[in-house]
């Protein structure tokens, strides 16, 4: 399968869970997906395959910005795809954490729709927005 096809597949398989977390956060299917981590695990498999497909990774390169730039520049489509899948997986996990935590804290679901959108599009921005809402609603900074 070409990296472009895997990119499309990976980008598509996250959509059902995102939609369910927004539209039906308490439905048993949504809860099952969130608890099973099925989609992030599938993405993790794709990540491992494409990260190591071109041979060993120079982990020392992660220590500097120049090293990371070099990894992406020399890694080609496989490394770029691995990076994209990394974002997809961790943004989905962050969204899952937001839904679960908001339910535990009894934060109205309508308040987390915008943070979920930002988790989907900009990962950490959504998590930051949720953290602000959570802190204001619960008057607590920690768990």
UniProtKB/TrEMBL annotation:
PANTHER family: PROTEIN ABA DEFICIENT 4, CHLOROPLASTIC. The keyword Transmembrane helix applies. This is DUF4281 domain-containing protein. Keywords: Membrane, Transmembrane, Transmembrane helix. The lineage of its organism: Bacteria, Pseudomonadati, Bacteroidota, Cytophagia, Cytophagales. It comes from the Bacteria. The chain crosses the membrane at residues 6-25, 32-52, 79-99, 111-133.
